[in-house]
Design a protein that fits this description.
Elements (H helix, E strand, L loop, with lengths): L4 E4 L5 E6 L5 E8 L13 H8 L10 H7 L3 E6 L4 E8 L3 H13 L5 H20 L6 H9 L14 H5 L3 H11 L5 E7 L3 H12 L22 E7 L5 E7 L8 H12 L5 H9 L3 E8 L7 E8 L5 H17 L4 H18 L3 H14 L8 H7 L2 H11 L5 E8 L4
Length: 414
């Protein structure tokens, strides 16, 4: 059981405090409800760009990292389709330093031509290194635009193309900051060797005067139900041919989320899972294979991806995957098999809670979804899934008309 307290400032900042006297450290996590889905199709990659810009200095802080390191802490951030998350771990006696730094960049980030030019180059280079210059690097660009036709999940977090960041103007970037980086669009979690009243005093001191902004309710385009099988092929200098199969599934807060997650585990989580045991160990069709769900705030994807063994024809491998999916749709999974994957999921949650920073991140995550109490009900939700639930969601989602397939083929050499 993770115990916590909550309060909210007048400017809308949601604050969660988790006290844990067993550690000398404090974790500070601030989650902004802005991700790649909040971008314009003509200006993508901005949420990820801000992950970098937020470390470029603010009104009173020329270099964010240096101040954290001098206080004995470390910091980092990540962005995805739905959120941008910043975090620090720091000795608890230096908690105020971290709160002061976060408040300073929330209220007065130093966005100028110099800082933008530096981070623009960093992000464009990252795009080149991770998407254009490595094997399978553009796979998710291809998959996203094939699976999504309307919803902004149709572009990856890093953006549709590097030109969008290359062309980002100072006005564009300042507008994005002013629109999304405000106290009433954020959740602050402080966890560790802290006391609620001291945290409240420090948060009010440093964040209380930051003005909120007027928000319009997000009106994201809804993705139409997919009703046709989609397929794309790519030729590239990759070490092995590869298959990516994606199926539209539910959003993170849907009651079927846990059934779909366990379905992906039954398919491929460990050496005794269906895809691994049959396609890799028995038939030797794949060098590696995996299945997982994206867990998006809006309806996301169940993904099956694998690299084929040398000389295996992709159509043969794909046909074998479909055979296993049909079996899952026709036969009940054994109770013992399902319980094994429940145990894995629950033990993963317990292991995650051993780390004070992970607890802080999870509290912020569920708060942004609208139900912070879920940090203590996840285990029960997994345990409630039964074999009939697995059969039901398999039949509902693992259908060809709900599927998009990318075949990545190795370029033939002379």
């Amino acid at each position: 059981m993770v115990e916590f307290s909550q309060f909210q400032l007048e400017n809308g900042l949601r604050v969660i405090v988790h006290e844990d006297g067993s550690t000398p450290m404090a974790a500070v996590n601030i989650l902004y409800n802005v991700g790649a889905r909040d971008e314009s199709p003509e200006k993508t990659g901005f949420a990820h760009l801000f992950e970098h810009l937020m470390f470029s200095g603010s009104a009173n802080v020329p270099d964010f990292d240096t101040y954290i390191q001098n206080a004995g802490g470390d910091c980092n951030a990540f962005t995805n389709n739905d959120i941008t998350n910043y975090y620090e771990t720091i000795p608890a006696e230096n908690l105020e330093t971290a709160l002061w730094l976060e408040a300073d960049r929330m209220s007065s980030l130093n966005i100028n031509e110099k800082s933008l030019d530096v981070q623009r180059k960093v992000v464009v280079e990252e795009f080149n290194e991770t998407c254009l210059n490595i094997p399978y690097g553009d796979a998710w660009h291809r998959i996203s635009r094939m699976a999504f036709r309307e919803h902004p999940y149709r572009w990856p977090t890093i953006g549709l193309e590097p030109q969008h960041i290359h062309d980002a103007s100072l006005e564009d970037v300042r507008s994005f900051y002013q629109k999304h980086y405000s106290p009433n669009n954020a959740t602050l979690v402080v966890a560790g060797n802290v006391k609620l009243e001291r945290v409240r005093t420090l948060v009010e001191k440093h964040f209380g005067d930051i003005p909120s902004i007027q928000y319009k309710e997000k009106q994201l385009p809804q993705e139409p139900v997919q009703s046709d099988f989609r397929q794309d092929k790519a030729m590239s200098d990759v070490p092995l041919d590869a298959i990516y199969m994606v199926f539209h599934v539910v959003e993170r807060m849907h009651e079927d989320y846990y059934s779909v997650d366990l379905l992906s585990d039954v398919l491929c989580n460990g050496k005794s899972s269906r895809l691994y045991k049959i396609l890799k160990k028995k038939l030797h069709l794949f060098a590696d294979i995996d299945a997982y769900i994206t867990g998006n705030f809006d309806p996301g994807l169940l993904v099956i991806e694998g690299r084929l063994s040398e000389g295996v024809d992709a159509s043969v491998a794909e046909a074998e995957i479909w055979k296993i999916l049909e079996t899952i749709k026709e036969e009940l999974v054994a109770e013992e098999e399902l319980q094994k994957y429940k145990n894995k999921a629950i033990s993963g949650l317990i292991f995650n809670e051993c780390n004070i920073l992970n607890r802080a991140m999870t509290l912020a995550f569920f708060s942004s979804l609208g139900n912070v109490e879920m940090i203590n009900t996840e285990k029960e939700r997994y345990e409630k899934v039964n074999v009939n639930d697995i059969l039901r969601v398999a039949n509902q989602y693992l259908n060809k008309e709900n599927c998009s397939v990318l075949i990545y083929q190795k370029t033939e050499t002379e």
